[in-house]
Each structure stands twice: as structure tokens, then as C-alpha cells.
Write a structure and sequence with these properties.
This protein is mostly helical and 752 residues long. The chain has 34 helices and 2 strands. Among the domains are: 137 residues, Leucine-rich Repeat Variant, CATH 1.25.10.10; 79 residues, no CATH class; 133 residues, no CATH class. Helix content is 62%, strand content 1%. It has a two-stranded antiparallel ribbon. Helix 10 packs parallel to helix 12 and helix 28 runs parallel beside helix 34.
Length: 752
């Protein structure tokens, strides 16, 4: 047969050569008899050897019957077919490349063959084909990718191993740029990474590692946007190796592509945020996720806050990489996953058509703030998420309010309820971050609305609250936006401040445990974040109209304790102690009217502001009040408080008996109210130390004291304040009688 074929080649008798090949194919290789098929395969291989370099002209006719035998039920026949194809390919070399897809398809099936001899033969053929591809520069990668994309989803281990080995070979060939087609096969590679075989997983890790190295070297040629959703999906995989690898890729993508990744922020956050609460068993994933989160946050800039509709797609210079810039812009918002649950992210989403504007120098990026806020809101509502995730969500919200305040205030009404509920969180760190966000909402100039009136009109006085915050240097940048170094408070409180105070007090009223355990902590932190005077002024104003008198009394007691004991309120205490300015006197009157809900706190406020005569007048009215155990307990606490450093100035004024007679009378009045107790002994010993006025007379004792001057110059109508105190206490008395009556009726019903 070889001699006959050589003669035909020498005679250039093409028709006879085709006739021989046809007979070998139809009558032998495709025969029903197994021995005939074996003979046909041997004959086709011999024919190919005889043709030599001319075999390339007849490859289609030579290869097709051999590939058909790959599906033969007889393993020996499959082996003969493998051997025949090896000889055909060995002779033809580079000429087989136009038929590469059918060869690859046949080999991928043999790679999973159950017979070891067939598998061994296919490996020899596979190595030969790889050598040919490696040494050739005519490989049709474009035509091969669809087949590779199809085969890469095989679940057979041997087929997967075969696929990965070919990807590694193609990746190593300098003339073949597989990176351009990485979006086509990346999802399949991550699927293979979850294989049960350690060897296959290792091979896939190597392949992905090589691709990532190539991406770092040539970021300008990478289609980041086309692969973003793929990474988002696999960053949520249950398999630790897949999740860690995908997260590492996401970290590099964010750092290399910069703002190109912004349209996918909501999907990235969906994948990254839950990882921040992982324990030490997944420490590596947690650390990488944290870097992703921080890097993504830095991509949001003040320019994203453009209000002009025409500028919502902000055109910005590309983020530079180590040596180059990203030159292929991809801005896609339609394919971005923006839901919190992982079930929403499906592989089928990747089949959506993507469009990319062509520009090699500038990137058109749209920040999908709605999607980001939706994800953050979803995570805040999810009670099962960990503490670190909740903190990260609140950091994101704070960052967005700093960078894009105008756009964020569109979402404030929907975010406000969950932010208030978060104040009940078990973690102090979460509450601190939550307060930072709420303080920024309450103080940002972007939150000011014209003609604002809070939704609950029953709790709001007719006119706007007059709030004052002293301007501090360095709080605002020259452009009017907040600088990163400044505190959240700004020189003006916006429309949300009063609404925040109303809702905070409502929450304390409905959740008394929160007030008891965290109330003081929350208010003290707010005094640091905002202006303490505004907070106390507004809360006092709201409590003045509080219908639940028992809650009003409890809240006033809490505020008074904070005012008298917290180091954060040192400046406000000094302001009230002197009452030198109209603002301080106005604040005193505002506080006084609400403090009247609690008689003892009212007296302590008078002590703080050195209104000793009025304190004495108030104590005289205590004889008309219902003295309860709670009342005496509060008097006991006030006596203890007088012995604290805060009232050092008051104790020193006891030396000036002549000019402070009402202070001594007020303290004696408290003494007369107390039963024989430790507090009684404490105050009695203090009053015994008051010196004899005659012994304390000096040459200038006839001059009025500074405190006397301040009191007479303050122009405060104390008579009206005293009448207000009596009015409020009468309301409390009526309320107590009503509660007692209801309790008595309930007892009767129980007896009946």
C-alpha cells in the first residue's frame, strides 16, 4: 500500500490517491467487521506516511474516519484509532492545525476513556499535538475559544485535567494571547478549582496564578469589567479555596482597574461584607476582603456627588497603574448585581450583552449609589450578620455621606428608621459608628431643606428651634465640603437634627431598657459629635411637650445626671454656671421648664447655675408635694453629688455666709427633707463646718459679691419660673392619682 501510494504521488495522480483513501475509509475503517476496521486504520496511517508532506492535502479524508473510531465500543479499536491518528499527525505536523478543533474534541473524550491503554495512547497524541501548537505561529485561537468554553464545564476529572493542561500550554506560548479571552473561560476555571482531586485543584491554581501575573504585567489589555460579575459570584462560593482565590483576584482588580470597578460596587459589597465577620478559621479570606472593602471605599470621590443630571456620568482620567494606565474603558451598570442575598447572583446573568464605550484615554464611570445603599440597608436589616460587617456597613454610610452628601440625602428617609434601631445593638462599637452616621445626617449642610417640618406635628412646636453652634476653625474646607480631618459637627444644624432628637426620645420612651443601659452613653457620644448645647436645648424643648409625664421625669433625671457628671459637658457646665450671656440665660430657662418634671433635678440645676434663692424657694414648695421613696432617693443622690468635685465652688461659697444666705438655707431645707440616714449625716456634717459670719467679716465684706451682681443682672423672671414649676408638679400629681386609681380598679377586678 505505501509503495502504491508513493507511485501515485510521483505521478501526481490525485484522484487515485483519494480513491485509495476512500476505499480504506468506507470499506475498511467504517466497516461493520472489527478486524476490517483495524486494517482500515492501519492502512490510513500507512497511507499518510507514504504521502509524507503531501498528506496535508488529504487530512480531512484521513482524519474523519479515524475520529469516528474513537467512539467504538471495542477498546482495542479505540487504541488502534489513537495510534493511527498519532502517525497521521506526526507526518502532517503544522498542517493539522486547521483541523485542531475536531482533534481536540476527540482527544477530550479519550482523556476520560476507562481503558488505561487507550488513555496512555491519547496522552502520547496529546503531547504531540501540544508540541505542534507550541512551535507554530498559525494557531487559530479565535476559532478554538468557543470549543474550550464548552468543554471547560465538564465534570469528569480526566477531562478537566486535560482542559487545564491545554490552558497552561496555550498560556505559555508567547504568540498566543489567551488573556484577551479570559472572560470566556474564567468562570469555568473557578468551577474546576472546586474539583475533589487535589492534583486538579493544584493545576487550576497554577493556571489562575499565571493569568493573575499576566494581568498585573499588562493591565491595559485586561477586560476588567467583563470579569467583575464572575468574581462577585465566586467570592461568595462555599468552597474556601474558590472564595479566597476569587477574593484575591477582586483585590487586584480594584487596585489595578480603579474606578472601572465602581459600577459593580453593590455586587462587590454583597460578596465582601459578610466575609469581614469571619472567624480565625477563615482569617485569610477575611483579611483579603478587608483590603477589597477599603480599596473600593477610596474610589468614591466628591465628584460623584454632581447634582446636574448631565454630569451624573462623570468623565475622569483613568487610574494609573504601576507603569501604565487602564486603556480599555468598560462602564457597565446594567449587569451589576445589587441584591444582598447570594441566591440572586446567577451564572446566567453573565450571558447578558455588555457594551463598552471605546476610548483609550478616559473612562466614563457612573456610581450606582442606589444599588450600594440597597445592599448596605439590606445588611443592616439582617440580624444574623456579624459585628464587623455591621461596623463596615456603617463606615460605608458615613463615608458616602461625607463624599456624596447630596445624593445620599435622597435615601435618608429610608435609612433613618434602621439607623435608629441600630442604636439598640449589643456592641458599643456598632453604636458609636451608628451615632457618627446619625450625627453627620443631623449636621450636614446638604440635609437642610426649605420649610422643613418633621412628620410628627404633635411633637413639634410651631416655630423652628433656634439652634446655635459656635464656628470652629478648620471644620469646613474652602469649597464648603467637609474635610476628612474635621469632626462631624458643622456650624449649622440641618432639618434632620430636630427630627433626630424627636425620634431618639421616642425610642427611649418605647424601649426603656435602652434608656437605662445605653441612654447616657448615647447622649454623651452625641455631645462629642454634635454641639452639646443644641442637644440639651432641643431635648428640653421636646420634653416640655411630652405627654408621658413619667417618661419625661425619667428622661430629665438622665439628662441632668449627664449634665452634672460627664467630662464631655465641662464647657456647657461652665457656661451655665456663670449665666453671663443672653444665650446661656436662654438655655437655663429652656432647661428649667423641662427640668420641672423632676423637682430634685430642678434644684440641682439651680445649684449649678448659682440661683440659690430660687433653689430655696423651690425647696419651700416641696412641702406641698407628695414625698415618696423615689423622691427621697433622689434627694439622697443630690446630697452625694454636692460632695463631688463638680460642686467644689458651691462648697467654697459656704465660707461667704453673708452673701450666700439662701445657699445655706437651701441646704438646710434639703437636710430637713431627709430622714435620719447616711445622707442626712453627710449633709449635717458639711453644714456644721459653715463658719460664724461674725468671725468671717473683713474690711471689704460690705461690698456685694460677684455672684450677687450676676444674679441681679440676669433679668430672669424667677416668679414666672416658680409658677411653671407648680403647674408641672400639679400635672404630675394628677397623673399619679390617675395611675393609682387604675391600679386600684385592676386589683378589684383580680379579686372578683
Amino acid at each position: 500500500l505505501p509503495r502504491l501510494v508513493r507511485e501515485f504521488v510521483a505521478q501526481n495522480n490525485t484522484s487515485q490517491i483519494k480513491h485509495v483513501i476512500q476505499i480504506l475509509s468506507q470499506e475498511f475503517a467504517l466497516s461493520q467487521h472489527p478486524h476490517s476496521r483495524k486494517g482500515g486504520l492501519i492502512g490510513l496511517a500507512a497511507c499518510s506516511i507514504a504521502l509524507g508532506k503531501d498528506s496535508g492535502l488529504y487530512l480531512k479524508e484521513l482524519i474523519e474516519p479515524v475520529l469516528t473510531c474513537f467512539n467504538d465500543a471495542d477498546s482495542r479499536l479505540r487504541y488502534y484509532a489513537c495510534e493511527a491518528l498519532y502517525n497521521i499527525v506526526k507526518v502532517a505536523r503544522g498542517s493539522v492545525l486547521p483541523h485542531f478543533n475536531v482533534l481536540f474534541d476527540g482527544l477530550s473524550k479519550l482523556a476520560a476513556d476507562p481503558d488505561p491503554n487507550v488513555k496512555s495512547g491519547s496522552e502520547l497524541l496529546d503531547r504531540l499535538l501540544k508540541d505542534i501548537v507550541t512551535e507554530s505561529n498559525q494557531f487559530d485561537l479565535v476559532g478554538f475559544i468557543p470549543l474550550l468554553r464548552e468543554r471547560i464545564y465538564s465534570n469528569n476529572q480526566y477531562a478537566r485535567q486535560f482542559i487545564i493542561s491545554w490552558i497552561l500550554v496555550l498560556e505559555s506560548v508567547p504568540d498566543i494571547n489567551l488573556l484577551d479571552y479570559l472572560p470566556e473561560i474564567l468562570d469555568g476555571l473557578f468551577q474546576i478549582l472546586g474539583d475533589n482531586s487535589k492534583e486538579i485543584r493544584k493545576m487550576c491554581e497554577v493556571a489562575l496564578g499565571e493569568f493573575l501575573k499576566e494581568i498585573k504585567k499588562n493591565p491595559s489589555s485586561v477586560k476588567f469589567a467583563e470579569m467583575a460579575n464572575i468574581l462577585v459570584i465566586h467570592c461568595q462560593a462555599a468552597d474556601d479555596l474558590i472564595q479566597l482565590t476569587a477574593m484575591c483576584w477582586m483585590r487586584e482588580f480594584i487596585q489595578l482597574a480603579g474606578r472601572v470597578m465602581l459600577p459593580y460596587s453593590s455586587g462587590i459589597l454583597t460578596a465582601v461584607l459578610p466575609c469581614l465577620s469571619y472567624d480565625d478559621r477563615k482569617k485569610n479570606i477575611k483579611e483579603v476582603a478587608n483590603v477589597c472593602n477599603q480599596s473600593l471605599m477610596k474610589l468614591v470621590i466628591p465628584e460623584d456627588d454632581e447634582m446636574d443630571e448631565a454630569k451624573q456620568s462623570t468623565t475622569l482620567p483613568a487610574e494609573p497603574t504601576s507603569e501604565e494606565s487602564v486603556s480599555k474603558p468598560e462602564a457597565v451598570s446594567s449587569g451589576e448585581p445589587s441584591h444582598c442575598g447570594r441566591s440572586e447572583l446567577d451564572i446566567t446573568a453573565l450571558n447578558q450583552p455588555l457594551s463598552f464605550p471605546c476610548s483609550s484615554e478616559r473612562i466614563q464611570v457612573t456610581l450606582n449609589l442606589d444599588g450600594i445603599v440597597q445592599v448596605l440597608d439590606c445588611h443592616l436589616h439582617d440580624t444574623s450578620i456579624g459585628m464587623m460587617t455591621r461596623i463596615a456597613v456603617l463606615k460605608w454610610l458615613y463615608h458616602l455621606y461625607i463624599k456624596t452628601p447630596r445624593k445620599m440625602f435622597r435615601h435618608t428617609d429610608s435609612l433613618f428608621p434602621i439607623l435608629l434601631r441600630t442604636l439598640s445593638d449589643e456592641s458599643d462599637e456598632v453604636i458609636l459608628k451608628d451615632l457618627e452616621v446619625l450625627a453627620e445626617i443631623a449636621s450636614s449642610p446638604a440635609g437642610q431643606t426649605e420649610g422643613y417640618s418633621p412628620s410628627d406635628s404633635s411633637d413639634v412646636r410651631p416655630g423652628p428651634v433656634e439652634l446655635h453652634v459656635p464656628a470652629r476653625a478648620g471644620q469646613l474646607s474652602s469649597s464648603g465640603t467637609k474635610s476628612l480631618e474635621c469632626s462631624p459637627s458643622t456650624p449649622t444644624m440641618n432639618s434632620y437634627f430636630y427630627k433626630f432628637m424627636i425620634n431618639l426620645l421616642k425610642r427611649f420612651s418605647s424601649e426603656r431598657k435602652l434608656l437605662e443601659t445605653r441612654g447616657a452613653f448615647i447622649i454623651r457620644q452625641l455631645c462629642l459629635l454634635l454641639n452639646a448645647e443644641n442637644i440639651f436645648h432641643s431635648m428640653a424643648d421636646i420634653l416640655l411637650r411630652e405627654e408621658d409625664l413619667k417618661f419625661a421625669s425619667t428622661m430629665v433625671h438622665t439628662l441632668n445626671t449627664i449634665l452634672l457628671t460627664s467630662s464631655e459637658l465641662f464647657q456647657l457646665r461652665n457656661q451655665l454656671k456663670d449665666l453671663k450671656t443672653p444665650e446661656s440665660r436662654n438655655l437655663f430657662c429652656c432647661l428649667y421648664r423641662s427640668w420641672c418634671h423632676n423637682p430634685v433635678t430642678t434644684v440641682s440645676l439651680c445649684f449649678l447655675t448659682q440661683n440659690y434663692k430660687h433653689a430655696y424657694d423651690l425647696i419651700q414648695k416641696f412641702g406641698d408635694l407628695e414625698v415618696t421613696v423615689d423622691f427621697l432617693t433622689e434627694v439622697d443622690k443630690l446630697v452625694q453629688l454636692i460632695e463631688c468635685p463638680i460642686f467644689t465652688y458651691l462648697r467654697l461659697q459656704l465660707l461667704d455666709v453673708k452673701n450666700n444666705p439662701y445657699l445655706i438655707k437651701a441646704l438646710y431645707g434639703l437636710l430637713m427633707l431627709l430622714p435620719q440616714s447616711s445622707a442626712f449625716q453627710l449633709l449635717s456634717h458639711r453644714l456644721q463646718c459653715v463658719p460664724n459670719p461674725e468671725l468671717m467679716q473683713t474690711a471689704d465684706s460690705t461690698k456685694p459679691s460677684a455672684s450677687f451682681k450676676r444674679t441681679t443682672a440676669s433679668n430672669i423672671d424667677y416668679t414666672e419660673l416658680l409658677q411653671h414649676f407648680e403647674k408641672v408638679q400639679n400635672k404630675h400629681l394628677e397623673a399619679r392619682h390617675q395611675r393609682a386609681g387604675r391600679a386600684e380598679q385592676l386589683d378589684r377586678r383580680v379579686v372578683l
